[in-house]
From TrEMBL, chain B:
The keyword Transmembrane helix does not apply. The lineage of its organism: Bacteria, Bacillati, Actinomycetota, Actinomycetes, Kitasatosporales. Keywords: ATP-binding, Cell membrane, Membrane, Nucleotide-binding, Transport. It is a peripheral membrane protein. This is ABC transporter domain-containing protein. SUPFAM superfamilies: P-loop containing nucleoside triphosphate hydrolases. GO terms for cellular component: plasma membrane. Its main location: membrane. GO terms for molecular function: ATP binding; ATP hydrolysis activity. Residues 13-261 form the ABC transporter domain. Residues 330-356 have a biased composition (Low complexity). Belongs to the ABC transporter superfamily. InterPro entries: AAA+_ATPase, ABC_Ni/Peptide_Import, ABC_transporter-like_ATP-bd, ABC_transporter-like_CS, Oligopep_ABC_C, P-loop_NTPase.
From TrEMBL, chain C:
This is ABC transporter domain-containing protein. Belongs to the ABC transporter superfamily. NCBIfam families: oligo_HPY. It comes from Streptomyces mangrovisoli. The keyword ATP-binding applies. GO terms for biological process: peptide transport; transmembrane transport.
Length: 307, 367, 325
């Protein structure tokens, strides 16, 4: 829009026509309330800052690594922390700090990718919960069937079938998550579908598409965001678990889970070598869970209209 | 009819103020409430949502929600201040000397116990009787609240009872501790009108039998007019007017009492507009300064906006209105409706006849 | 010519032993510009009937015609576009407005759905007009439902219902959830817009005291059957059916000098436990006759009366016949 086409602002007393960007402002307002609450919640803020830091490390890893994460210094294996190697070296004499930094990106990447794959369950669940009937019957049966298989076993199967790689780890975890996302989305959509405002919207002539997109989705968003953020946490832990079992990302690419597994395999009598990677994994998981909790609170309070 | 002056008070509320924890410091919910309940009499506590009437009832029983507390004042039951009483002793009073009935009977009953057991449990909590005796007393109580076939009904569960029958069971529970005072918070609001009438009849009969003092918390001026001896009208956390029902309803001194009385639409015909009070009920966080009713009051003058009015004793009523002594209320209440109707209706002739008819009625009441 | 015609509507919920007959063959008509109050107690089926009229609930049998359209036979798509002419206001304004939408979007939504207005800006402009018509400020547009009181939200609901310029409006207990002091405002507003736009209005309520003020005609429903139907004033002043009489006598008066509610309540007979296959009111009726337990009474107009009041009562039928002889 050019400057000369801008309409004159109407006098405030008789503002019959709302200003054009009202629509966009309305949309912004809707989300900003939750975001604002999230930013005033201390645990959420800490989690967000930590996640931002971890992401920065993942992006700028090559600038931050003091050593080559893959270079083996066999004369310096299993060294404790010192001025040369801040967090010591591993059983092949590789610098632990550099490997942690290098491993950030693959760790995050598999977690996010796995969750994204799992999120395929969300639209299916929303549809199932809203439409009920045959659709929900079939999808629900399939998802229950998948849920009855122990998740690790399922992941073994997929990795065994497709081979070890970062992508396959994400895929395995993602597929395990699909029915879980389905359940959450289905429950959320179903409870929204029973709300009076859904009947009111139907009474005023809304079709199924609009009901789903404009009413079900926004109202089911809270529980879904919570689930998503916690799912990432779960993926991180499952991925670490897979690494410990030797089914994670194959070497030499470092991941936090893989490092924990190496330390465990080669130095099980000592605690320290396991600590850095273990702590980081726990921190990462906690960040996502805290964020999930805070999102739930923020949504809950936004709904009840409290400050 | 009213023997208000003669009998000694049974339960007295003096200067009761209640506050809630808020994000910006404590939020006052009620302020300086004075109420008197006498044996064999019914005090109506009328107000709308947010007026603090229910909180006042809960405070009298010491069962305020966790974030709410009594800031000042006393609740005197035969000389003992219930507010100062330790929780253990208060528990004996609650359900003992003071019985209570709430709005939603179904939620107040435990769905997994039989109705007879729930009544018997309360009896055993307040009286030294055996299990068997309690059971028999429970059946007796159910009979007393006119539940047909009480012997069989005692063995049934709450879900087998209708809303009205559940409320009768609640009344039986309330009577189990042989109370002197009954606090009933909107006991008939969730019930159908025909069931409401029967329930009010029952409460009245039991009151006469047991010489109960009753506090009836309600939003319905019609119910007050039919069953109460005295009435306290609450608005925005304060008692606006308190006095004998006949005085308050026939010649209300406070504009809010008058407006609330006239909000019942049964006199209004098709084609006329109802007498509406303009504006909204303010929440406790946005109570106006000065008189709290002034933004909605058609009689408000500058003085009402500036200073909170004192409580005036006028005859047998106490009024919190700066203009109460001017004896304007009746005329001006009608003026206000005139103003309103002129703004919004084209049938002003019909309305003015209606108003003049009201004037006469009010005049009779005053004499 | 009636704008709304309901003919022999029946509806049952549940199956087998839990089957409850909610509506037992109800016929009603509402003319353009007319308000029909449907009065009944909880469980009488009054809300179900309102939803069947708008086909939010499917009836078991019977026909619904609105503006000569057979509502029960419309396809899903036809029904959606027909909804433009028939709107509803619900009892609970907090529940019936989507908490995640701002008021402006809520009022504009029906217009969007029915393609009213050239673009969204025009719809929003119309929404402002509608909000001003129901007594709200344009600043409400950008606020969320939780920022308003029940009375204000009910105004929003009215604005939303009016957005498509409907011909038929169902109001399901529109003021029952509101505070006494704001009820009158909302009722006045409803009456005004109904007049202004010549709406046919089905006003569902449990509160007989409202009826005279808001309705032209009243139908009293008891356990899924209409027991009495006629001009509001006539039914209110001279209730003929024993159930209507019982309902009216249970409404509290407001004059403490003329108390009679409790005396009237004491006169009502205790309900009998006998099952009735005939009149639904038989077990509570003070005038019950043997025939009432077995025969379903049919509605009759008293031919001798000056008013068109239909009453379904055996007792009155007997009287009528005696009068004729």
């Amino acid at each position: 829009m050019t400057a000369d086409t801008v309409t004159e602002p109407a006098p405030p007393a008789v503002s019959r026509t709302p200003p054009p960007p009202l629509r966009r402002r309305l949309a912004r307002l809707r989300h900003s309330r939750v975001v604002r609450r999230l930013l005033t919640d201390r645990p959420a803020l800490v989690a967000l800052v930590l996640l931002a830091l971890i992401s920065l490390v993942a992006v700028f890893h090559s600038l931050l690594e003091p050593h080559d994460p893959l270079r083996q210094e066999l004369s310096h294996i299993n060294a404790g922390p010192g001025s040369e190697h801040l967090l010591g070296t591993d059983y092949l004499g590789r610098d632990v700090l550099s490997r942690l930094i290098e491993g950030t990106a693959p760790t995050l990447w598999t977690a996010v990718l796995g969750t994204l794959i799992g999120m395929i369950g969300i639209p299916l669940g929303l549809l199932g919960g809203y439409l009920r009937g045959v659709v929900d019957g079939v999808l629900g049966q399939v998802s229950d069937g998948l849920l009855s298989i122990p998740p690790l076993l399922f992941a073994f199967g997929i990795i065994g079938f497709m081979g070890r790689s970062s992508l396959n780890t994400a895929l395995a975890v993602g597929i395990v998550l699909i029915p879980r996302f389905y359940r959450v989305a289905q429950t959320a959509a179903r409870s929204v579908a029973e709300e009076l405002y859904m009947e009111a919207a139907r009474a005023s002539g809304c079709g199924p598409g609009r009901l789903l997109v404009r009413h079900v989705v926004p109202n089911a968003l809270g529980p879904l965001l919570v689930q998503t953020s916690q799912a990432i946490g779960v993926v991180v832990s499952v991925q670490a678990g897979l690494s410990v079992l030797g089914l994670g990302t194959p070497p030499p690419t470092p991941t936090w889970g893989g490092m924990l597994s190496d330390a465990f395999d080669n130095n099980a009598d000592q605690i320290f070598p396991m600590l850095p990677s273990a702590v980081l994994i726990v921190v990462l998981i906690l960040c996502f869970f805290t964020l999930g909790d805070s999102i739930r609170d923020a949504y809950g309070r936004a709904e009840r209209g409290k400050k | 009819m009213s023997t208000t002056e003669q009998t000694a008070p049974l339960l007295e509320v003096r200067g009761l103020s209640i506050e809630a924890k808020g994000p910006d410091g404590p939020l006052v919910l009620t302020e300086g409430t004075d109420l008197t309940i006498r044996p064999g009499q019914t005090l109506g506590l009328v107000g709308e949502s947010g007026s603090g009437k229910s909180m006042t009832g809960l405070a009298m029983l010491g069962v305020l929600p966790p974030s709410v507390r009594v800031r000042a004042g006393q609740v005197l039951l035969g000389g003992t201040d219930l507010i100062a009483l330790p929780e253990k002793e208060l528990r004996a009073v609650r359900g003992g000397r003071i019985g209570m009935v709430f709005q939603e009977p179904r939620r107040s009953l435990d769905p997994s116990f039989t109705v007879g057991d729930q009544v018997a449990e309360t009896i055993r909590a307040h009286r030294e009787v055996s299990r068997k005796q309690a059971r028999n007393l429970a059946v007796e109580l159910l009979d007393r609240v006119r539940i047909p076939d009480p012997g069989t009904r005692a063995g049934q569960y709450p879900h087998q009872f209708s809303g009205g029958m559940c409320q009768r069971v609640m009344l039986a529970v309330a009577l189990a501790g042989e109370p002197e005072v009954l606090i009933a918070d909107e006991p008939t609001t969730a019930l159908d009108v025909t069931v409401q009438a029967a329930m009010l009849r029952l409460i009245k009969d039991l009151q006469e039998e047991l010489n109960l003092g009753v506090l009836l918390i309600t939003h319905d001026m019609g119910v007050v007019a039919e069953v109460c001896d005295d009435v306290a009208v609450m608005y925005a956390g304060q008692v606006a007017e308190v006095g004998p029902v006949r005085d308050v309803l026939s010649a209300p001194r406070h504009p809010y009492s008058a407006a609330l009385r006239d909000a019942t639409p049964d006199e209004c015909r098709r084609g006329e507009l109802l007498q509406a009070i303009p504006g909204q009920i303010p929440p406790p966080s946005a109570w106006p300064s000065g008189c709290r009713f002034h933004p909605r009051c058609s009689l408000a003058v500058d003085a009402c906006r500036e200073a909170a009015p004192d409580v005036l004793q006028l005859g047998r009523t106490r009024v919190r209105c700066a203009r109460a002594t001017e004896n304007l209320t009746e005329n001006s209440a009608n003026n206000s409706t005139n103003n309103l109707t002129e703004n919004s209706t084209n049938d002003s002739t019909e309305n003015s006849t209606n108003n003049s008819a009201k004037n006469e009625g009010a005049g009779h009441g005053a004499r | 010519m009636a704008l709304v015609e309901l003919d022999r509507i029946t509806k049952a919920f549940g199956r087998g032993r839990r089957r409850v007959q909610a509506l037992r063959g109800i016929s009603l008509t509402i003319a353009r510009g007319e308000t029909l109050a449907l009065v009944g107690e909880s469980g009488s089926g009054k809300s179900t009937l309102g939803r069947i009229a708008l086909r939010l609930v499917e009836a078991d049998e019977g026909t619904v015609r609105i503006l000569d359209r057979p509502v029960r036979e419309l396809s899903a798509k036809e029904l959606r576009s027909a909804r433009r002419d028939m709107q509803m206001i619900f009892q609970d304004p907090f529940g019936s407005l989507d908490p995640r939408m701002v008021i402006g979007e809520l009022v504009a939504e029906p217009m969007t759905v029915h393609g009213i207005g050239a673009d969204h800006d025009e719809r929003l402009a119309r929404a402002v007009e509608l909000l001003e018509r129901v007594g709200l400020d344009a600043s409400a547009m950008e606020r969320f439902p939780y920022e308003f009181s029940g009375g204000q939200l009910q105004r929003v609901a009215i604005a939303r219902a009016l957005a498509t310029d409907p011909k038929f409006l169902v109001c399901d207990e529109p003021v029952a959830a509101l505070d006494v002091s704001v009820r009158a405002q909302v009722l006045n507003l409803l009456t005004e817009v109904q007049r202004e736009r010549g709406l046919a209005c089905l006003f569902i309520t449990h509160d007989l005291s409202l009826v005279r003020a808001v309705a032209d005609r009243v139908a009293v429903i008891h356990h899924g059957a209409i027991v009495e139907c006629g001009p509001a004033e006539e039914v209110y002043e001279h209730p003929r059916h024993p159930y209507t009489q019982a309902l009216l006598s249970a409404v509290p008066g407001r004059d403490p000098d003329r108390r009679s509610l409790l005396a009237r309540a004491a006169e009502q007979p205790a309900p009998q436990t006998r099952e009735s296959t005939g009149c639904t009111f038989a077990n509570r009726c003070p005038l019950v006759m043997e025939r009432c337990w077995t025969d379903v009474p049919t509605p009759h107009v008293d031919a001798a009366a000056s008013h068109e009041v239909e009453v379904a009562c055996h007792h009155l039928d007997v009287h009528r016949q005696q009068a004729l002889q």
